[in-house]
Amino acid sequence: MTFGSKAAFRAARERCGISQKMLADRFGNAVMTVKRWEKPGEAEPPADVQAWLEHMLSQHVEAVEAALDAVDGIEEVQGNPPDHVDLTYYRSQAHYDEFGRDEAVYSVVNARSREIGAILQAEGYTVRYVYPEDADTVSTLGGA
Q1: Radius of gyration over alpha carbons of the chain, in Å?
Q2: Closest residue by Cα to residue 9 from 65, 48, 50
Q3: Nearest 10 degrees: CA dihedral of 37, 91, 89, 58?
Q4: Domain boundaries in the chain?
């Protein structure tokens, strides 16, 4: 297995905000099939599924790193860290479709925002999660 273990496969899927149903639908399988891929002693995920998930994880990491770089850029321009960082969060796919920047799955976008927020909070930043229509939102990070 490319991920090293079934637990690592599941962790990568969840980290990216991809549900078992989303993965099953993407590859034309039943949710029970995905559950088996993640259960010890059952079938391994096919190579194409693993490759796709690796690609999604790579995109996730790149997006998180880009957002963190953007925060560093704010600090460089201002000469000090921002007093807070707003991260955009979506309530549903319809909400993302209305306010999102491009085509994406809202759970994937929200997973990125959660990871960015956790890293920034660990670095001492104040993080606020905001819906895109919040009136007091001036600038936000996160997104697809």
Answers
A1: 17
A2: 50
A3: 20
A4: 6-130
Assigned token pair, 76: 């460089």
What does each of the 144 residues of the chain score in pLDDT, given as a tens digit? 679 999 999 999 999 999 999 999 999 999 999 999 999 999 999 999 999 999 999 999 999 999 999 999 998 899 888 999 999 999 999 999 999 888 999 999 999 999 999 999 999 999 999 999 985 544 445 554
Q: What angle do CA 88, 99, 74 make, to 5 degrees?
A: 40
| C-alpha dihedral sign at 115, 144, 45, 27 | positive
> What's the one-letter identity of residue 16?
C
Identify the CATH assignment for 6-130 out of 1.20.120.640, 3.40.640.10, 2.60.40.10, 1.10.3100.10: 1.10.3100.10
Nearest to 88 by CA among 117, 129, 144, 136: 129
> In terms of pTM, does the model score above 0.85?
yes
